[in-house]
Design a protein that fits this description.
- By secondary structure, the chain is α/β, with parallel strands linked by helices.
- The protein has one domain: TIM Barrel (Alpha-Beta Barrel).
- It contains 11 helices and 8 strands.
- Strand 6, helix 9 and strand 7 form a beta-alpha-beta unit.
């Protein structure tokens, strides 16, 4: 079984002080967790402080974004060299970045390849809009996102990536895909596309579900073998909820 990964994307929440206090409260409650990767993605201003605070704990750190250049005249951007020794993961291609920052599939691919070259695990987000789902093109749209994101990534590298299926219509809306819908997309369309590209190596790629995940519905997703964890928004902002997500995943996966 692939090692599950639960990542909390804090988006534009929590000050530096709040972020550090959060992980200091969270880490002791997860000290016994060795079978699940527990990841937090604070804001950029809190990234270094959180990384320092979680040293020696089970918690790992993700950046919410990353540029493909090592340095340059890219105002507001973060280079992979700046993340070295701080973040183990970088979220790439989140729908909010695609929508609000005009991040294209080509940019997602460049960032994913650069992350791998820099020793950072990319968490590559894909997902369709409500209109695309209603019009029957969700599967082809997401499959194309996967193909474009993995262009130029070798079979030797693919297991070093994480994919996150986040249907846009379920992010921050209170709506969520059923476990069956999520599993069909993850186990069928997404992993099926990876198998077309990489053969059996696709079975080593961890694929998360994201979109209004909370303790109340976590078990529904985790009971499916093709869903390897969750990329969580709002529920990751509360210590008790984050701990509950991990414990539910442990139980559902028999860990």
């Amino acid at each position: 079984m692939r090692k599950p990964i639960i990542a909390g994307n804090w988006k534009m929440y929590k000050t530096v002080e709040e972020s550090v206090a959060f992980v200091q409260a969270l880490a002791p409650q997860l000290a016994d967790v060795t079978t699940i990767d527990c990841v937090v993605a604070p804001s950029f201003v809190a990234l270094y402080s959180v990384a320092q605070a979680v040293q020696g704990t089970v918690l790992q750190v993700a950046s919410q974004q990353m540029h493909w250049a090592d340095e340059g005249a890219y105002t507001s951007q973060i280079a992979p060299t700046m993340l070295r020794g701080i973040a183990s993961y970088a979220i790439i291609g989140h729908s909010e970045c695609r929508a609000y920052l005009n991040e294209t599939d080509e940019m997602v691919n460049k960032k994913a390849r650069k992350a791998l070259a820099s020793g950072i695990t990319p968490i590559i987000a894909v997902g369709e809009s409500l209109e695309q789902r209603r019009s029957g093109v969700a599967d082809s749209f997401v499959a194309n996102q996967v193909r474009l994101a993995y262009d130029g990534i070798s079979a030797d590298q693919v297991a070093q990536t994480v994919l996150a299926y986040e249907p846009i219509w379920a992010i921050g809306t209170g709506e969520n895909a059923t476990g069956e819908i999520a599993n069909d997309m993850i186990g069928g369309t997404i992993r099926g596309t990876l198998r077309e590209l990489y053969g059996d190596a696709a079975d080593n790629v961890r694929i998360q579900y994201g979109g209004s995940v909370k303790p109340e519905n976590m078990a529904e997703y985790m009971r499916y073998p093709d869903i390897d964890g969750a990329l969580v928004g709002g529920a990751s902002l509360k210590v008790d909820a984050f701990v509950a997500l991990i414990r539910i995943a442990q139980q559902a996966k028999g860990l």
